[in-house]
Amino acid sequence: MRSALLSCLTFCLLAALSGSAAGAAKERPREPFFPRAGNVGYDVANYKVDLTFRAGSGKVRALAMIGATATQRLSRFSLDLFGMRVTEVSVDGEPARFNRGRDKLKIEPRTPVRRGERFETLVRYEGRPETVTDPDGGHEGWIETNDGALAVGEPIGTASWLPCNNVPADKASFEIALTVPERLKAVSNGRLVGIGRDPGRRTYVWWERKPMSPYLATVDIGRGRLTKDRIAGLPSWTLIDPLLEKYSLPILAKLPEVIRFEEGIFGPYPFDSAGSIVDFAPGIGYALETQSRPIYLFVPDLTTVVHETAHQWFGNSVGLQRWPNIWLNEGFATWAQWYYAERHDGRSARQIFRALYKVPASNAELWEPPSGHPGTAKNLFATSTYVRGAMALEALRIKVGTKPMLKILRRWATEHRYASANIKQFVALAEEVSGDELGPLFQRWLYQRGKPLPRG
Ligand SMILES: [Zn+2]
Prior knowledge:
25% helix, alpha+beta, single chain, Neutral Protease, domain 2, binds zinc ion, 30% strand
Protein backbone atom coordinates (compact mmCIF):
# COMPACT_ATOMS: atom_id res chain seq x y z
CA MET A 1 0.00 0.00 0.00
CA ARG A 2 1.06 3.51 -0.13
CA SER A 3 -0.23 7.07 -0.06
CA ALA A 4 -3.25 8.15 1.88
CA LEU A 5 -6.19 8.37 -0.49
CA LEU A 6 -9.92 8.10 0.02
CA SER A 7 -10.54 7.60 3.70
CA CYS A 8 -10.64 3.88 3.28
CA LEU A 9 -7.43 3.46 1.44
CA THR A 10 -3.93 4.29 2.32
CA PHE A 11 -1.10 2.48 0.68
CA CYS A 12 2.13 1.15 -0.82
CA LEU A 13 4.79 2.81 -3.13
CA LEU A 14 7.50 3.10 -5.98
CA ALA A 15 10.42 4.38 -8.38
CA ALA A 16 12.84 3.16 -11.14
CA LEU A 17 16.27 1.58 -11.78
CA SER A 18 19.17 -0.97 -11.94
CA GLY A 19 20.87 -3.36 -14.28
CA SER A 20 22.72 -6.31 -15.51
CA ALA A 21 24.77 -9.34 -14.77
CA ALA A 22 27.00 -11.63 -16.64
CA GLY A 23 28.01 -14.96 -18.01
CA ALA A 24 26.56 -15.63 -21.39
CA ALA A 25 23.44 -17.70 -21.09
CA LYS A 26 19.79 -16.85 -21.48
CA GLU A 27 18.53 -13.83 -19.64
CA ARG A 28 15.58 -13.61 -17.31
CA PRO A 29 13.03 -11.26 -18.94
CA ARG A 30 13.51 -7.68 -17.81
CA GLU A 31 11.23 -6.20 -15.22
CA PRO A 32 9.04 -4.00 -17.44
CA PHE A 33 8.62 -1.05 -15.07
CA PHE A 34 12.16 -1.04 -13.73
CA PRO A 35 14.36 -2.36 -16.51
CA ARG A 36 17.52 -1.47 -14.59
CA ALA A 37 16.42 -3.39 -11.48
CA GLY A 38 17.46 -6.96 -10.87
CA ASN A 39 20.29 -9.06 -12.11
CA VAL A 40 20.35 -12.21 -14.16
CA GLY A 41 22.42 -15.29 -13.57
CA TYR A 42 21.65 -16.17 -9.97
CA ASP A 43 18.91 -16.70 -7.41
CA VAL A 44 19.44 -15.39 -3.91
CA ALA A 45 18.63 -17.77 -1.03
CA ASN A 46 19.70 -15.69 1.93
CA TYR A 47 20.75 -12.17 2.90
CA LYS A 48 22.66 -11.57 6.11
CA VAL A 49 23.38 -7.98 6.93
CA ASP A 50 25.11 -6.49 9.93
CA LEU A 51 24.43 -2.76 9.92
CA THR A 52 25.64 -0.15 12.40
CA PHE A 53 23.79 3.14 12.54
CA ARG A 54 25.51 6.31 13.70
CA ALA A 55 22.90 8.61 15.12
CA GLY A 56 24.83 11.84 14.86
CA SER A 57 25.91 11.70 11.21
CA GLY A 58 23.16 9.46 9.86
CA LYS A 59 25.83 7.26 8.37
CA VAL A 60 25.84 3.50 8.39
CA ARG A 61 28.60 0.94 8.19
CA ALA A 62 27.55 -2.51 7.01
CA LEU A 63 28.64 -5.98 6.09
CA ALA A 64 26.31 -8.01 3.87
CA MET A 65 26.61 -11.70 3.01
CA ILE A 66 24.53 -12.78 0.05
CA GLY A 67 24.09 -16.52 -0.46
CA ALA A 68 22.93 -17.39 -3.96
CA THR A 69 22.85 -20.15 -6.57
CA ALA A 70 24.21 -19.48 -10.04
CA THR A 71 21.68 -20.17 -12.79
CA GLN A 72 24.41 -19.80 -15.37
CA ARG A 73 28.20 -19.66 -15.37
CA LEU A 74 29.21 -16.33 -13.85
CA SER A 75 32.50 -14.74 -14.77
CA ARG A 76 31.00 -11.54 -13.42
CA PHE A 77 27.69 -10.49 -11.93
CA SER A 78 26.09 -7.49 -10.27
CA LEU A 79 23.98 -6.50 -7.30
CA ASP A 80 21.69 -3.49 -7.05
CA LEU A 81 23.09 -0.85 -4.73
CA PHE A 82 22.38 2.88 -4.73
CA GLY A 83 25.15 5.15 -3.52
CA MET A 84 27.30 4.00 -0.57
CA ARG A 85 31.05 3.50 -0.64
CA VAL A 86 32.00 -0.13 -1.10
CA THR A 87 35.29 -1.00 0.58
CA GLU A 88 35.57 -4.77 0.17
CA VAL A 89 34.02 -7.57 -1.88
CA SER A 90 34.81 -11.24 -1.77
CA VAL A 91 33.22 -14.31 -3.32
CA ASP A 92 33.49 -17.59 -1.41
CA GLY A 93 36.17 -16.05 0.74
CA GLU A 94 38.38 -14.90 -2.11
CA PRO A 95 38.82 -11.17 -2.71
CA ALA A 96 36.99 -10.11 -5.86
CA ARG A 97 37.43 -7.19 -8.22
CA PHE A 98 34.56 -4.76 -8.22
CA ASN A 99 33.45 -1.45 -9.60
CA ARG A 100 30.37 0.69 -9.57
CA GLY A 101 27.91 1.35 -12.34
CA ARG A 102 24.99 3.67 -11.83
CA ASP A 103 22.96 1.93 -9.10
CA LYS A 104 24.99 -1.28 -9.51
CA LEU A 105 27.83 -3.03 -7.78
CA LYS A 106 29.64 -5.02 -10.48
CA ILE A 107 31.67 -7.96 -9.24
CA GLU A 108 34.25 -10.16 -10.92
CA PRO A 109 35.04 -13.25 -8.85
CA ARG A 110 38.59 -14.55 -8.99
CA THR A 111 37.24 -17.88 -10.17
CA PRO A 112 34.05 -17.94 -12.27
CA VAL A 113 31.09 -19.47 -10.48
CA ARG A 114 29.84 -22.63 -12.15
CA ARG A 115 26.22 -23.02 -13.14
CA GLY A 116 24.22 -24.61 -10.32
CA GLU A 117 26.85 -23.76 -7.72
CA ARG A 118 26.02 -22.11 -4.39
CA PHE A 119 28.22 -19.12 -3.73
CA GLU A 120 28.48 -16.47 -1.09
CA THR A 121 29.29 -12.84 -1.73
CA LEU A 122 30.58 -10.57 1.02
CA VAL A 123 30.16 -6.82 0.60
CA ARG A 124 31.51 -4.30 3.09
CA TYR A 125 30.17 -0.76 2.62
CA GLU A 126 29.48 2.51 4.36
CA GLY A 127 27.96 5.92 3.84
CA ARG A 128 24.75 7.83 4.27
CA PRO A 129 22.01 5.83 2.54
CA GLU A 130 19.86 7.74 0.11
CA THR A 131 16.19 8.46 -0.10
CA VAL A 132 14.74 7.44 -3.47
CA THR A 133 12.21 9.61 -5.29
CA ASP A 134 9.81 7.46 -7.29
CA PRO A 135 8.27 8.15 -10.72
CA ASP A 136 5.07 9.22 -8.93
CA GLY A 137 6.99 11.65 -6.73
CA GLY A 138 6.76 9.51 -3.58
CA HIS A 139 9.74 8.81 -1.35
CA GLU A 140 11.17 5.49 -0.26
CA GLY A 141 14.48 3.84 0.47
CA TRP A 142 16.30 5.11 3.55
CA ILE A 143 14.58 7.94 5.36
CA GLU A 144 16.04 9.85 8.28
CA THR A 145 13.65 10.73 11.07
CA ASN A 146 13.86 13.09 14.02
CA ASP A 147 15.17 10.31 16.25
CA GLY A 148 16.75 7.80 13.88
CA ALA A 149 15.95 6.39 10.47
CA LEU A 150 13.71 3.94 8.68
CA ALA A 151 13.73 1.92 5.49
CA VAL A 152 10.74 1.28 3.23
CA GLY A 153 11.46 -0.39 -0.08
CA GLU A 154 8.47 -0.55 -2.41
CA PRO A 155 9.21 -0.85 -5.20
CA ILE A 156 13.01 -0.44 -5.35
CA GLY A 157 14.24 1.44 -2.29
CA THR A 158 15.86 -1.49 -0.50
CA ALA A 159 18.95 -1.08 -2.71
CA SER A 160 19.64 2.16 -0.87
CA TRP A 161 20.85 0.23 2.19
CA LEU A 162 21.35 -3.39 1.08
CA PRO A 163 23.09 -4.81 -2.01
CA CYS A 164 20.40 -7.07 -3.45
CA ASN A 165 18.72 -8.62 -6.46
CA ASN A 166 16.05 -5.98 -6.45
CA VAL A 167 13.06 -7.66 -8.09
CA PRO A 168 9.99 -9.04 -6.33
CA ALA A 169 10.31 -12.54 -7.80
CA ASP A 170 13.72 -13.27 -6.23
CA LYS A 171 12.63 -14.07 -2.68
CA ALA A 172 15.07 -15.03 0.05
CA SER A 173 15.37 -15.34 3.81
CA PHE A 174 16.81 -12.37 5.68
CA GLU A 175 18.94 -12.08 8.81
CA ILE A 176 19.24 -8.43 9.76
CA ALA A 177 21.40 -7.29 12.69
CA LEU A 178 21.07 -3.61 13.60
CA THR A 179 23.53 -1.94 15.95
CA VAL A 180 22.30 1.34 17.37
CA PRO A 181 23.05 3.68 20.28
CA GLU A 182 21.81 2.28 23.56
CA ARG A 183 18.99 4.83 23.89
CA LEU A 184 17.39 3.74 20.60
CA LYS A 185 15.53 0.63 19.48
CA ALA A 186 15.88 -1.13 16.15
CA VAL A 187 13.25 -3.31 14.54
CA SER A 188 13.03 -5.26 11.31
CA ASN A 189 11.10 -8.19 9.84
CA GLY A 190 10.44 -11.54 11.44
CA ARG A 191 11.54 -12.70 14.87
CA LEU A 192 13.85 -10.98 17.30
CA VAL A 193 16.38 -13.72 18.02
CA GLY A 194 18.74 -11.81 20.27
CA ILE A 195 19.95 -8.50 21.61
CA GLY A 196 23.70 -7.94 21.85
CA ARG A 197 24.82 -5.56 24.58
CA ASP A 198 28.02 -3.58 24.35
CA PRO A 199 28.89 -0.43 26.25
CA GLY A 200 26.70 2.31 24.83
CA ARG A 201 25.31 0.13 22.04
CA ARG A 202 22.71 -2.52 21.41
CA THR A 203 22.52 -4.98 18.52
CA TYR A 204 19.05 -6.22 17.59
CA VAL A 205 19.10 -9.42 15.55
CA TRP A 206 16.03 -10.13 13.42
CA TRP A 207 15.38 -13.21 11.30
CA GLU A 208 12.73 -13.55 8.64
CA ARG A 209 13.05 -17.19 7.59
CA LYS A 210 10.13 -17.31 5.18
CA PRO A 211 10.82 -16.21 1.60
CA MET A 212 10.68 -12.43 1.30
CA SER A 213 10.97 -10.09 -1.68
CA PRO A 214 13.64 -7.43 -1.12
CA TYR A 215 11.08 -4.62 -1.31
CA LEU A 216 9.36 -5.99 1.79
CA ALA A 217 12.42 -5.67 4.03
CA THR A 218 12.23 -2.90 6.59
CA VAL A 219 14.32 -1.19 9.23
CA ASP A 220 13.10 1.19 11.87
CA ILE A 221 15.45 2.86 14.32
CA GLY A 222 14.22 5.30 16.92
CA ARG A 223 13.00 5.99 20.40
CA GLY A 224 10.11 4.11 21.93
CA ARG A 225 9.20 0.91 23.68
CA LEU A 226 9.79 -2.32 21.84
CA THR A 227 7.09 -4.64 23.11
CA LYS A 228 6.66 -8.35 22.65
CA ASP A 229 3.29 -10.07 22.87
CA ARG A 230 1.68 -13.25 21.77
CA ILE A 231 -1.23 -12.60 19.43
CA ALA A 232 -3.31 -14.99 17.37
CA GLY A 233 -0.85 -17.72 18.34
CA LEU A 234 2.16 -15.76 17.04
CA PRO A 235 5.05 -13.94 18.67
CA SER A 236 4.54 -10.27 17.89
CA TRP A 237 6.87 -7.29 18.23
CA THR A 238 5.79 -3.68 18.05
CA LEU A 239 7.70 -0.41 18.09
CA ILE A 240 5.80 2.87 18.18
CA ASP A 241 7.26 6.35 18.11
CA PRO A 242 6.38 7.93 21.48
CA LEU A 243 4.81 10.88 19.67
CA LEU A 244 2.20 8.58 18.12
CA GLU A 245 1.81 5.95 20.83
CA LYS A 246 -1.29 7.19 22.61
CA TYR A 247 -3.52 7.16 19.54
CA SER A 248 -1.95 4.14 17.84
CA LEU A 249 -2.26 1.62 20.67
CA PRO A 250 -6.07 1.30 20.68
CA ILE A 251 -6.10 0.58 16.95
CA LEU A 252 -3.17 -1.85 16.99
CA ALA A 253 -4.87 -3.70 19.85
CA LYS A 254 -7.28 -4.94 17.17
CA LEU A 255 -4.54 -6.66 15.15
CA PRO A 256 -5.17 -10.12 16.72
CA GLU A 257 -8.82 -9.98 15.70
CA VAL A 258 -7.89 -8.80 12.20
CA ILE A 259 -5.43 -11.69 11.78
CA ARG A 260 -8.01 -14.20 13.02
CA PHE A 261 -10.65 -12.78 10.70
CA GLU A 262 -8.38 -12.94 7.67
CA GLU A 263 -7.20 -16.44 8.58
CA GLY A 264 -10.84 -17.45 8.55
CA ILE A 265 -11.15 -16.28 4.95
CA PHE A 266 -7.72 -16.71 3.36
CA GLY A 267 -6.32 -19.64 5.36
CA PRO A 268 -3.49 -19.83 7.91
CA TYR A 269 -1.39 -16.71 8.47
CA PRO A 270 1.67 -17.31 6.31
CA PHE A 271 4.49 -16.09 8.59
CA ASP A 272 5.85 -17.03 11.99
CA SER A 273 5.68 -13.61 13.60
CA ALA A 274 3.56 -10.48 13.58
CA GLY A 275 3.56 -6.94 14.90
CA SER A 276 3.53 -3.32 13.87
CA ILE A 277 5.82 -0.35 13.45
CA VAL A 278 4.55 3.19 13.81
CA ASP A 279 6.94 6.03 13.14
CA PHE A 280 6.88 9.64 12.21
CA ALA A 281 8.66 10.71 9.03
CA PRO A 282 8.02 14.30 8.03
CA GLY A 283 6.46 14.56 4.58
CA ILE A 284 5.80 10.83 4.21
CA GLY A 285 2.33 9.66 5.08
CA TYR A 286 1.85 6.16 3.83
CA ALA A 287 1.81 2.66 5.24
CA LEU A 288 3.62 -0.32 3.81
CA GLU A 289 2.99 -4.05 4.27
CA THR A 290 6.59 -4.87 5.22
CA GLN A 291 6.67 -8.62 5.74
CA SER A 292 5.27 -9.88 9.04
CA ARG A 293 5.36 -6.34 10.48
CA PRO A 294 3.70 -3.50 8.54
CA ILE A 295 5.03 -0.01 9.01
CA TYR A 296 2.66 2.96 9.44
CA LEU A 297 4.04 6.43 9.01
CA PHE A 298 1.02 7.98 10.70
CA VAL A 299 -1.43 6.92 13.38
CA PRO A 300 -3.02 3.91 11.72
CA ASP A 301 -6.76 3.51 11.35
CA LEU A 302 -8.45 0.13 11.48
CA THR A 303 -9.14 -0.15 7.77
CA THR A 304 -5.45 0.45 7.02
CA VAL A 305 -4.48 -2.27 9.47
CA VAL A 306 -6.92 -4.59 7.71
CA HIS A 307 -5.37 -3.65 4.36
CA GLU A 308 -1.73 -4.15 5.39
CA THR A 309 -2.55 -7.39 7.17
CA ALA A 310 -4.31 -8.73 4.06
CA HIS A 311 -1.10 -8.06 2.15
CA GLN A 312 0.64 -10.70 4.28
CA TRP A 313 -1.30 -13.18 2.13
CA PHE A 314 -1.63 -11.11 -1.04
CA GLY A 315 1.62 -9.50 -2.01
CA ASN A 316 3.94 -10.98 0.61
CA SER A 317 3.20 -14.72 0.67
CA VAL A 318 1.71 -14.79 -2.83
CA GLY A 319 4.19 -12.41 -4.42
CA LEU A 320 4.40 -10.70 -7.78
CA GLN A 321 6.25 -12.09 -10.74
CA ARG A 322 6.31 -8.59 -12.22
CA TRP A 323 5.31 -5.13 -11.03
CA PRO A 324 2.60 -4.63 -13.71
CA ASN A 325 0.64 -7.35 -11.85
CA ILE A 326 0.27 -4.99 -8.86
CA TRP A 327 -3.52 -5.55 -8.96
CA LEU A 328 -2.89 -8.91 -7.27
CA ASN A 329 -1.60 -6.94 -4.27
CA GLU A 330 -3.63 -3.77 -4.09
CA GLY A 331 -6.97 -4.85 -5.52
CA PHE A 332 -7.02 -7.78 -3.11
CA ALA A 333 -5.98 -5.85 0.00
CA THR A 334 -8.55 -3.16 -0.76
CA TRP A 335 -11.31 -5.71 -1.32
CA ALA A 336 -10.34 -7.25 2.04
CA GLN A 337 -11.04 -3.85 3.64
CA TRP A 338 -14.50 -3.82 2.11
CA TYR A 339 -15.26 -7.38 3.12
CA TYR A 340 -14.04 -6.74 6.66
CA ALA A 341 -16.39 -3.75 6.88
CA GLU A 342 -19.26 -5.86 5.54
CA ARG A 343 -18.72 -8.51 8.19
CA HIS A 344 -18.36 -5.94 10.97
CA ASP A 345 -21.62 -4.02 10.54
CA GLY A 346 -20.22 -1.56 8.05
CA ARG A 347 -21.29 -1.01 4.48
CA SER A 348 -21.26 -4.17 2.41
CA ALA A 349 -18.75 -4.60 -0.38
CA ARG A 350 -21.72 -4.60 -2.75
CA GLN A 351 -22.91 -1.24 -1.43
CA ILE A 352 -19.42 0.23 -1.82
CA PHE A 353 -19.23 -1.21 -5.32
CA ARG A 354 -22.60 0.26 -6.28
CA ALA A 355 -21.76 3.69 -4.88
CA LEU A 356 -18.48 3.74 -6.76
CA TYR A 357 -20.08 2.50 -9.95
CA LYS A 358 -22.18 5.67 -9.96
CA VAL A 359 -19.01 7.70 -10.40
CA PRO A 360 -19.17 9.00 -13.96
CA ALA A 361 -16.91 7.74 -16.71
CA SER A 362 -15.39 11.21 -16.86
CA ASN A 363 -13.67 10.60 -13.50
CA ALA A 364 -10.29 9.53 -14.81
CA GLU A 365 -8.81 9.09 -11.36
CA LEU A 366 -11.11 6.20 -10.53
CA TRP A 367 -11.23 4.51 -13.92
CA GLU A 368 -7.77 5.09 -15.40
CA PRO A 369 -5.53 3.30 -15.90
CA PRO A 370 -7.21 -0.13 -15.89
CA SER A 371 -5.96 -1.95 -12.80
CA GLY A 372 -4.66 -4.97 -14.72
CA HIS A 373 -2.65 -2.76 -17.02
CA PRO A 374 -1.16 0.21 -15.18
CA GLY A 375 1.05 0.96 -18.16
CA THR A 376 3.96 2.70 -16.44
CA ALA A 377 5.69 2.72 -13.08
CA LYS A 378 4.14 6.09 -12.35
CA ASN A 379 0.72 4.42 -12.16
CA LEU A 380 1.68 1.55 -9.86
CA PHE A 381 -0.08 3.15 -6.92
CA ALA A 382 -2.79 5.00 -8.80
CA THR A 383 -6.23 5.16 -7.20
CA SER A 384 -7.58 2.87 -9.90
CA THR A 385 -5.06 0.17 -8.94
CA TYR A 386 -6.75 0.01 -5.56
CA VAL A 387 -10.36 1.01 -6.01
CA ARG A 388 -11.19 -0.14 -9.53
CA GLY A 389 -9.02 -3.15 -8.62
CA ALA A 390 -11.23 -4.02 -5.64
CA MET A 391 -14.32 -3.41 -7.76
CA ALA A 392 -12.99 -6.02 -10.20
CA LEU A 393 -12.98 -8.58 -7.38
CA GLU A 394 -16.45 -7.56 -6.24
CA ALA A 395 -17.62 -7.86 -9.86
CA LEU A 396 -16.20 -11.39 -9.82
CA ARG A 397 -18.09 -12.10 -6.60
CA ILE A 398 -21.34 -10.78 -8.13
CA LYS A 399 -20.81 -13.09 -11.09
CA VAL A 400 -19.78 -16.31 -9.30
CA GLY A 401 -21.35 -15.91 -5.83
CA THR A 402 -19.81 -15.36 -2.42
CA LYS A 403 -18.96 -18.94 -1.56
CA PRO A 404 -17.06 -19.68 -4.78
CA MET A 405 -15.40 -16.25 -4.49
CA LEU A 406 -14.03 -17.05 -1.04
CA LYS A 407 -12.93 -20.45 -2.27
CA ILE A 408 -11.02 -18.82 -5.11
CA LEU A 409 -9.23 -16.46 -2.73
CA ARG A 410 -8.35 -19.22 -0.30
CA ARG A 411 -7.04 -21.50 -3.00
CA TRP A 412 -5.06 -18.61 -4.49
CA ALA A 413 -3.40 -17.98 -1.12
CA THR A 414 -2.77 -21.70 -0.60
CA GLU A 415 -1.58 -22.78 -4.03
CA HIS A 416 0.85 -19.89 -4.50
CA ARG A 417 1.98 -19.66 -0.88
CA TYR A 418 5.55 -18.23 -0.72
CA ALA A 419 5.74 -18.16 -4.51
CA SER A 420 5.32 -15.48 -7.18
CA ALA A 421 2.27 -15.40 -9.40
CA ASN A 422 0.59 -13.50 -12.23
CA ILE A 423 -2.89 -12.36 -13.22
CA LYS A 424 -3.31 -15.01 -15.89
CA GLN A 425 -2.95 -17.70 -13.25
CA PHE A 426 -5.61 -16.01 -11.12
CA VAL A 427 -8.07 -15.86 -14.00
CA ALA A 428 -7.46 -19.56 -14.72
CA LEU A 429 -8.08 -20.47 -11.08
CA ALA A 430 -11.26 -18.38 -10.91
CA GLU A 431 -12.57 -20.15 -14.02
CA GLU A 432 -11.64 -23.56 -12.64
CA VAL A 433 -13.36 -22.99 -9.28
CA SER A 434 -16.48 -21.32 -10.67
CA GLY A 435 -16.82 -23.32 -13.86
CA ASP A 436 -17.61 -20.03 -15.59
CA GLU A 437 -16.04 -18.45 -18.64
CA LEU A 438 -14.62 -15.29 -17.05
CA GLY A 439 -12.49 -13.89 -19.84
CA PRO A 440 -15.01 -11.15 -20.78
CA LEU A 441 -15.48 -10.06 -17.16
CA PHE A 442 -11.75 -9.72 -16.49
CA GLN A 443 -11.27 -8.06 -19.85
CA ARG A 444 -13.78 -5.37 -18.88
CA TRP A 445 -12.58 -4.89 -15.33
CA LEU A 446 -8.85 -5.32 -15.64
CA TYR A 447 -7.89 -4.27 -19.13
CA GLN A 448 -10.54 -2.16 -20.83
CA ARG A 449 -9.81 1.53 -20.76
CA GLY A 450 -12.32 3.83 -19.12
CA LYS A 451 -15.30 2.88 -17.00
CA PRO A 452 -16.16 -0.80 -17.44
CA LEU A 453 -19.52 -1.48 -19.05
CA PRO A 454 -22.04 -3.40 -16.93
CA ARG A 455 -21.65 -6.37 -19.30
CA GLY A 456 -19.67 -7.03 -22.40
ZN1 LIG B 1 -1.54 -1.91 -0.25
